[in-house]
Give the backbone structure.
Amino acid sequence: MPVANDAPGVDIERADGDAEAGDLPINELFQSLQGEGRLAGVPSVFVRTSGCNLRCWFCDSYHTSWEPTHDWFGVDDVLAAIEEYDADHVVLTGGEPLIHDSSEALLERLADRGYHTTVETNGTVVPDAPIDLASVSPKLASSTPTAERDPDGDGEWADRHEERRLDVSTLAELVERYDTQLKFVVTGREDMAEIEGLIERVRDAASARVRDDDVLLMPEGQTREQLEATREMVADLALEYGYRYTPRLHVDLWNDAPGT
Ligand SMILES: C[S@@+](CC[C@H](N)C(=O)[O-])C[C@H]1O[C@@H](n2cnc3c(N)ncnc32)[C@H](O)[C@@H]1O
Ligand SMILES: Nc1nc2[nH]cc(C(=O)O)c2c(=O)[nH]1
Ligand code: SF4
Ligand SMILES: [Mg+2]
């Protein structure tokens, strides 16, 4: 998916493909309702950076991970595009937004201007920047792109993904530093043992408290049809384990349409 430049008033004229120091690779920028997590339903501007240090086989943002596409924009240009919208909430996502140093500069500027910021992150990087809600989605073994599941080849990324996907001390630091929700993509009941074990390890490692309702179970699925097959099972698991369920509101509403 190319940069979404058809939204009214969004100025992304300087799309010349060349990076300058401090630029961010932007895949798309749009307004929607936050579809996931504690703030589901809140009108928000989404800034999607391109590039990721992981390769989940199910990644619903294929054009930021497996096949990244983007144009480069300065932080000022990104801010100007955000300010075209009448929104108080900004969601910085990707790809993995925290692999880019300039994400920190953008978050500083957004905080200065009084925006509420959510960062959607895989929890492998601790940033040095203000964030109102760290929406951390640690990646489970069921996300690994094994040869059978690799959408793009025959498992070349499996080892790198496996090595990088979880680091308890990084997760503990995020929990200590930020108001955090831990949002797990659930593919089946088999994921629960890993989730339970990981929560226990993060609780042991972090001085800050992780409440059961800071832990969210989200059904895997990029389309309405796929979610139909997983959401009830995941809702039942949330009830059984006492964690929170999060819908994928945007998928329920708009399926897999771009810019939603
Ligand atoms: C595309 S990721 C970008 C942010 C970051 N890289 C991460 O994974 O948290 C945004 C959110 O979508 C979730 N996600 C990606 N593919 C999904 C799928 N097929 N089903 C459910 N959630 C998915 C991720 O777990 C994450 O919470
Ligand atoms: N509406 C909507 N809500 C979202 N919440 C997290 C998203 C993401 O891709 O990070 C996302 C997204 O892509 N769309
Ligand atoms: S970590 Fe996030 S962006 Fe990266 S591949 Fe997984 S879901 Fe996609
Ligand atoms: Mg998304």
